[in-house]
Specification:
Aminoglycoside 3'-phosphotransferase, Chain: A, domain 2; binds magnesium ion; binds adenosine-5'-triphosphate; 339 residues; Phosphorylase Kinase, domain 1; 5-stranded antiparallel sheet; 2 domains; alpha+beta
Length: 339
């Protein structure tokens, strides 16, 4: 039993027995094609006529089977861990994973109702949103900050080390090396030195307390957050990994600030939203923290590298990417020059 996309046995036999139900039929509601996977939104119809919507994520094969297997198992188990942590909570949640099969490169989760935060923000904040709409969206990002704070309060199991300067510099220099060697970007080599100095001097101000680690989501972005009335539901966990709390915090913040590059968004509204996010996290001025600034710089450099790669490989939006690269560089320059 195969449709053109995946083995139907997975649905009729394995998933059915996991759910302890007889599945009579199913329907593919949507297919989302992603660079690494195709995601199928399926409606299951049970023998008792009740229905359930699930997401079946099928990863494209890569040339490293063992890696795929580990990744898929890790995605499932990590999501399961966080689902269990949050399942009693009415305000903060995690999607419910149902089943995984590494050989078929499939992970299935139950659909959480709710709207994707990236869609809400990208579509509704543009141009001239009404004050009541801004307040509504402020609430959503505020609660996303609360969600992250709650997530980070879970104690890391193993004895963990503290954040070290070397690993921060390595991360940045590895990415900068690729940017520097690309002649099209015209990256000023002096800028690399300045960035290193910038990080070094911020590091001197980092308190011991701030060097502690917590669990990371690693991709805490707008597209991995669903808003269901008052509730925030997070998805797309990859592995149990620890690192600095500032990593996820500044990742979300960075993504919001990127909207300031687009003229369809009003800068002051984006500032209001980032402030609400940080206030929800518990400290509206935490963006002045030296370690926050270091992580924000990491995200900016990462973004610069990614945008530049895009512009290398694709003709579409070529000019736009070029403009973003130049803008990001200007911004980095400004940051490392201010004392
Ligand atoms: N269980 C679920 N309930 C509701 N929506 C879901 C569920 N699983 C996936 N989605 C939707 O599908 C989208 C993509 O899922 P996911 O983030 O797992 O895939 P991805 O390929 O890692 O995406 P990206 O690389 O963009 O982060 C999500 O942003 C979300 O809108
Ligand atoms: Mg995602």
């Amino acid at each position: 039993m195969h449709n053109q996309y995946f083995n139907e046995e997975l649905i009729y036999n394995v998933l059915a027995s996991k759910l302890n139900k007889i599945i009579q039929s199913y329907q593919i509601l949507n297919i989302i094609n992603r660079p690494l996977s195709s995601i199928f939104r399926l409606e299951l119809v049970f023998a008792d006529n009740s229905r359930m919507t699930v997401y079946l994520k099928k990863y494209h094969p890569t040339n490293n089977n063992i890696y795929d297997t580990i990744q898929i198992e890790s995605e499932f188990k990590t999501t399961k861990f966080w689902y269990e942590q949050f399942k009693e909570n009415e305000k903060y949640g995690v999607i419910k994973p149902l089943y995984f099969n590494p050989e078929q490169r499939v992970v299935i989760s139950e659909e959480s109702k709710g709207q994707n935060l990236s869609k809400i923000i990208f579509k509704q904040v543009r141009y001239f949103p009404s004050p009541s709409l801004i307040r509504k969206i402020q609430e959503m990002v505020h609660r996303s900050g609360e969600w992250l704070y709650k997530f980070q309060s879970v104690q890391v199991k193993e004895e963990t080390q503290k954040i070290a300067l070397d690993s921060l510099l390595d991360y940045v220099n590895l990415r900068l090396a690729k940017i520097v060697e690309n002649p099209k970007i015209e990256f000023d080599i002096n800028l690399q030195k300045k960035i290193n100095n910038y990080i070094n001097s911020l590091w001197e101000k980092v308190s011991e307390q701030d060097k502690q680690m917590c669990y990371l989501h690693s991709d805490f972005s707008l597209s991995n957050i669903l808003v269901q009335n008052e509730k925030i539901i997070v998805l797309d966990f990859n592995k149990m990994e620890s690192g600095s709390p500032f990593h996820d915090l500044s990742r979300f913040y960075h993504q919001l600030t990127l909207l300031k590059n687009k003229p369809i968004y009003q800068k002051k509204i984006i500032d209001v939203l980032t402030k609400s996010f940080l206030t929800g996290y518990g400290d509206g001025s935490i963006d002045r923290n030296p370690l926050f600034k270091i992580y924000l710089m990491q995200h900016r450099i990462n973004h610069l590298g990614k945008t530049a790669r895009y512009w290398e490989h694709s003709r579409i939006e070529n000019l736009y990417s070029r403009w973003i690269v130049r803008n990001t560089m200007k911004e980095i320059y400004k940051l490392v020059s201010e004392k």
